[in-house]
Design goal:
The protein is mainly alpha-helical. The protein has 2 domains: 1-57; 62-116, Arc Repressor Mutant, subunit A (Orthogonal Bundle). Helices cover 53% and strands 0% of the residues. It has helices spanning 5-16, 21-28, 32-42, 68-79, 84-91, 95-105.
Amino acid sequence: MPWTPDEDAQLQALAVSGKSAAAIAAKLKRTEISVRSRASKLRVLLGTRESKGEMTKPPFIESKPWTPEEENQLRTLAISGETIAAISKRLWRSEGALRHRARALGIVLRRVEKRE
């Protein structure tokens, strides 16, 4: 069944209020897939799924603190010319985390030239 302008307006209003696709689907008597598809076409962001259908903020993912040993390893590997990808694997840290910590410690990381 096609979406009406009234349903589009309801979907947008419910999404702005933080409702999830599941909650909106129940309110509009549509499937969750239909709501997600229509929201995508309208470029409407939906809330996350919860039992009450209310939007929640994404959880803040806090990384484990850097130890002095890890910082020393980062310095040593950077000085030896290891790539960010190699250091990332050795220290079990993301490349972004390595860049951030290296910048904070004043460590210069090697850039890899892209081959053409």
